[in-house]
Amino acid sequence: MQGKGVTLNCTLPVPSVQELVRQQRPDALPPRYLRDDTVVADHHRESLQDLPRIDLGKLMDLASRSTELRNLHSACREWGLFLLVNHGVSDEGMRMTKENVRGFFELPHHEKQKSAQRPGSLEGYGQAFVTYHEQKLDWNDMIFLKCHPPHARNLDLWPRNPPEFRVALEKYSEDMRKLAEAVAKYIGMALGIHEEELDLLAKSFGEGSCQVRMTYYPACPEPERAVGMTPHADATGITLLTECGNVAGLQVLRKDNCWVTVLPVPGTIVVNLGQIMEVYSNGTYRAPDHRVVVNKEKERVSIATFCNPSPSLPVGPSPQLLAATGLPPIFQTLSNSEEFLQRFLSRKLDDAVPFIDSLKL
């Protein structure tokens, strides 16, 4: 039997939650999905205050840039998450991707199983970071695929149905890669980075890796006792999230330890700073803890794109930032994002020290 000592770079096969709901129509949660109070605390006491909105068009316009950079700096420092408007990704491309992702989850189970995760891998259809047989499970099914660079793709796992799935995902992931390059550039500017270092930061995201996780959260018989996704911070550079409907579920942990619901807003993309950016900013910006809660009546589908800088960029506090502030670095400098991710994946599920703290000097 595998135990809690297993690292995070692989996952065990688990039953499909979607099939469980379809076949059994349970009126109570199966035991493996029942979560304790520390995970589901405050499900019904979350704040619904408006989250920061950042306008990419204003960042691109010299006349409005300085004001919007101040807004971006505040959003990254106080929240680590914001809604991006005027992002430039085409409505048609977004619509096509959402339709194909929903279409995949509507396929018969045996068809989805053609993309099932292989032993020893996180990629494919299944669930992430299940490392022992007694582990409590999240109320979701997902498919996780590597998209960029193209040579990293495992096309054996890319669904052939719906017929336009592959074309839609290829175009969508390319759009997200380009958007991550622009977002990284302006985050660097908001931090006070300039010239060669700013160019290197933006270029590294333009040439970096992207993985896409598409997640289906079925309606849940006891949503107050389950969790769609366990609280965590992303071990990435930048995460870009698209909602495939108007059902809320994502919650972000505010600095005062209050969970705040991120209400879906049509036409926006949620930008979530990952821990690579927290390290790069020397702790000025935060990679927030977030989770997903589930709904008793409605399903939810989301698309998360995890964007990381290329191996050309060391992962450590910005040299320009350290020079400008005169502050000592609080994080180690690793050779690149690949070493950073390997550090994360070599951890164990029950490690007592949070990953971000393990990187501190």
TrEMBL record:
Any Pfam family: DIOX_N
GO molecular function annotation: metal ion binding; oxidoreductase activity
Fe2OG dioxygenase domain boundaries: 208-309
Keywords: Iron, Metal-binding, Oxidoreductase
Domain of life: Eukaryota
InterPro entries: DIOX_N, IPNS-like_FE2OG_OXY, IPNS-like_sf, Oxoglu/Fe-dep_dioxygenase_dom, Plant_2OG-oxidoreductases
Family recorded in the similarity comment: Belongs to the iron/ascorbate-dependent oxidoreductase family.
Protein name: Fe2OG dioxygenase domain-containing protein
Native source organism of the sequence: Eucalyptus grandis (Flooded gum)
